[in-house]
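User: My instructor asked us to take a sequence, write out its structure as C-alpha cells, and then describe one feature of it. I'm not sure where to start. Here is the sequence I was given:
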Amino acid sequence: MTSPFDPPAVTWSRVSPRLVTARLVPAAITLGIPVLVGVALAFAASPWFWILAGIPAAIFALVAFVVPRQVRAIGYAERDDDLLIRKGLMFRSLTVVPYGRMQYVDVEAGPLDRKLGLAKVQLHTASVGTDAQIPGLPPDEAARLRDRLASRGEARLAGL
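Assistant: Let's start with the prediction itself. The C-alpha cells for your sequence are:
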C-alpha cells in the first residue's frame, strides 16, 4: 500500500544537512542564556537554581534530538506539472504546488544562512494558503530552482 506522502515514481531531493546547524544555533543561544544564569545563581546563591539551569538544558537536548530528524524529513521533487514538498515527522505534510499557480519565487538567506552557505526558496501562489518554502538549499541550487520554477510557472501561466 502506498502512502499519501510517498507518491509512486517520485525521486526526492534533500536539503543540506547544514540546516541542522542553522536551526540549532538560535536554539542554543536562546536556551543557553537561562542555563548560564541558572548555573551562576546555583553557585552564588542556592542549589535550587540548578533547576533553572536544568529545564532549558533538557529542552535543548530534546531539540538537538528532534531537529536532525526533522531536517532529514524535508524533501522536494520536481514533476512535469507541479512541485512536491514534504516535511514533518509526527505531523507530516505533502504540499503540491502546480507550476501554473505560481506567481513568483523568492530566494532568501539571513546572516546565519549565508555564513553556513544556505538559502531558502519561497514560492508564492495565487492562493494564500498554498505558499510553500524549501529551506536549507545551497545558494546555487536555490538559484537554479528559482529560475527553473519561474520559467515553468510562466510557461504554464501563458498556456491558460
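For the description part of your assignment, you could build on this observation: The two ends are 36 Å apart (CA to CA). Try explaining in your own words what that tells you about the chain.
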